[in-house]
Design goal:
Blueprint (H helix, E strand, L loop, with lengths): L5 E2 L1 H17 L1 H5 L11 H17 L7 H15 L2 H10 L1 H7 L5 E2 H18 L8 H16 L6 H22 L1 H6 L4 H17 L8 H4 L6 H4 L5 H4 L7 E8 L9 H10 L2 E9 L2 E8 L2 H9 L4 E8 H13 L7 E9 L2 H9 L4 E4 L8 H9 L3 E7 L6 H9 L5 E3 L5 H10 L6 H12 L3 E7 L4 E3 L2 E3 L4 E5 L2 E6 L2 H14 L4 E6 L5 H14 L4 E6 L7 E5 L1
Parallel strand pairs: 7-8, 7-9, 9-10, 16-17
Antiparallel strand pairs: 1-2, 3-5, 3-6, 4-5, 11-14, 11-18, 12-13, 14-15, 16-18
Helix pairs in contact: 1-3, 1-11, 3-4, 3-5, 4-5, 4-6, 5-7, 5-20, 6-7, 7-8, 7-9, 8-9, 8-11, 9-11, 19-20, 21-22, 23-24
């Protein structure tokens, strides 16, 4: 393909595959590019899982599927699987393929460059306040370089993608000059770095490093109406009798288990446990869908190949019985006006949101962000005319808004940036009030909330005036580092004092582990003397990675 001016469907799929491989290979490098040296770097993971969702959809297509449908499936998979801001932006960047290619069966250099430009325009529109020095800048400058290269008379796909990659690498190196926070942390933009890895994979495909004609077979399996349909009922899939459990999960293959025969081996193992089976491999991830009477046995069997991700088990027997009973009663729903879906991590916080009438709590937060599809699926489980979605994290807002955009207006996002804001919004939520009334009350409630956290540094760093050593405790207030110390107790006290000095009347501390309770009580004893007008509370949160979360008002 290096000297040719176009590529066909098989070569396009191969290009996606090598881009995915390159990103997977360097995922942890991208994760490590946190501005703050905190243990929640997940940009690489978010981008990889988002891209993997696109590849899974391509893998489900039957042999002979035209290029137009391949591109559509990839775009739709990325959209639904998008996680975090980086994943959502990635999904918008590659929507350009779908918007530009149309019904063509051959992609030339000019069309490829046009597709990247189209994706950049789409991505910029998706971001309410675009920030330069991020993945957006890298994508825009690279697309412009590709467009210029495509205008040359001797242009080939290889020369165009080579120009795209070269410019992307140049701009990535300059991102610290565009964003002071990157310069202070001594890192380049993580999303931009992830995109560069993808482009490197694309160029590898253009160079003809693999036998790309075989790739079409690798990503062409029998289609499954059950997995491919966004909505289906048990009565459409089964007859009377035993229904069992619809079980879906991803296997992250251990390195020693990765081989050409692994996919077939897993399929044979899963056939023992049930039917309606689909097994699809995309690099080190294997998607499994099986209907079984014993989901635990299926999961145990799958664990021999590697750790499991995104486990989903639905009791189809119960679903069928519920639907049947509702049909017999002449109704299918008993919808209320508004339902509530929130995102939270940690058993204590999950329990607290349930107590505050949340219909669904989606696991996730500062790390392991839920996908657009996860949020849509949670909303689908809520019997209400409207669903209010609280993302409770800045990095989940874009996925939440994307879920809202594809829900035909049923999902309404209240942009909460922290657990504290989410709890304040949930406190004033009323399921029988109108969506307008709930929206106004929630937005007013979160205006008075201050949020913060305490976590441990994972590397030496210097942020602003703060010199941070690996293992130090870091206090973060509204996204900015406030204090650093070797003592967690010291940082805890300084953070609470910071809230009190800013007029807090109530300060709540959510602790990660029950062993921290005594530490909190000691801090409160001294602070009550210093700030007698402030009410101090503590609750078990169980949140990962962050020893303490704060909510003050």
């Amino acid at each position: 393909m290096q000297q040719r001016g176009w590529m066909d469907k098989a070569e396009f799929i191969a290009m996606l595959h090598t881009g995915h491989q390159e990103l997977a290979k360097h995922k942890e490098n991208v994760n490590a590019l946190n501005v703050f040296p905190v243990p929640d770097g997940d940009t690489g993971t978010n981008m990889l899982l988002s891209f993997s969702s696109g590849m899974e959809q391509v893998a489900c297509l039957p042999e002979g599927t035209p290029l137009e449908q391949v591109v559509s499936a990839f775009s739709a998979g990325l959209l639904m699987g998008a996680r975090g801001n980086s994943g959502v932006i990635l999904s918008q960047l590659f929507r350009g393929f779908q918007l530009a290619f149309g019904k063509t069966e051959r992609i030339d250099a000019r069309l490829f460059a046009l597709a990247l430009q189209s994706g950049v325009h789409t991505a910029y529109k998706a971001v309410s306040r675009p920030v330069e020095g991020t993945i957006l800048t890298v994508a825009r400058e690279a697309a412009q370089a590709g467009e210029a290269a495509a205008k040359k008379q001797e242009a080939t796909l290889y020369s165009v993608v080579s120009a795209i990659l070269k410019r992307a690498e140049q701009v990535l190196a300059k991102t610290p000059d565009l964003l002071p926070v990157l310069r202070q942390a001594g890192v380049v933009d993580s999303g931009g770095q992830g995109l560069v890895y993808i482009y490197r994979g694309f160029l590898s495909a253009m160079a003809g490093a693999d036998d790309h004609k075989k790739m079409d077979e690798r990503f062409s399996l029998e289609s499954s109406d059950v997995l491919g349909s966004p909505v289906y009922s048990a009565s459409e899939v089964h007859g009377e009798g035993e229904f069992g459990y619809c079980t879906e999960f991803l296997i992250q293959l251990e390195p020693e288990k990765r081989s050409d025969g692994t996919e077939q081996l897993i399929r044979a193992q899963m056939e023992i446990h049930g039917d309606s089976l689909l097994v699809v491999q995309a690099d080190e991830l294997i998607k499994v869908h099986v209907h079984t009477l014993h989901p635990g046995a299926a999961l145990e069997s799958a664990l021999t190949f590697g750790p499991l991700l995104r486990i989903k088990i639905d009791n189809m027997t119960a679903q069928h019985q519920t639907i049947t009973q509702q049909i017999k009663k002449g109704k299918t729903t008993s919808a209320k006006v508004c339902g509530l879906v929130v995102v939270a991590a940690g058993q204590g916080l999950l329990d607290l949101f349930h107590e505050l009438s949340a219909d669904q709590v989606v696991p996730g937060g500062q790390t392991m962000n839920p996908s657009t599809e996860d949020l849509l699926e949670a909303a689908k489980q809520v019997s209400a005319d409207h669903v209010i979605l609280l993302p409770n994290n800045r990095n989940i807002v874009m996925a939440a808004e994307q879920a809202s955009a594809v829900s035909d207006g049923r999902i309404h996002v209240v942009e909460t940036h922290s657990v504290g804001q989410g709890l304040a919004a949930a406190l004033v939520y009323h399921p029988e009030q109108s969506i307008e009334t709930n929206d106004q009350a929630m937005k007013e409630a979160i205006q008075h909330i201050m949020s913060g956290s305490v976590t441990t540094s994972v590397r030496d760093s210097k942020i602003g005036e703060h010199v941070i050593g690996e293992g130090d405790y870091i206090g973060i207030f509204e996204g900015d580092i406030t204090c650093v110390d070797h003592s967690r107790q010291t940082v805890l006290v300084k953070m609470i004092e910071h809230f009190c000095s800013r007029g807090a009347e109530i300060c709540t501390v959510f602790y990660r582990d029950p062993i921290f309770v005594s530490e909190v009580q000691i801090a409160f004893a001294d602070l009550r003397v210093k700030f007698p007008h402030v009410e101090f509370e503590h609750q078990y949160g169980g949140q990962p990675l962050y020893d303490y979360l704060f909510a003050a008002e």
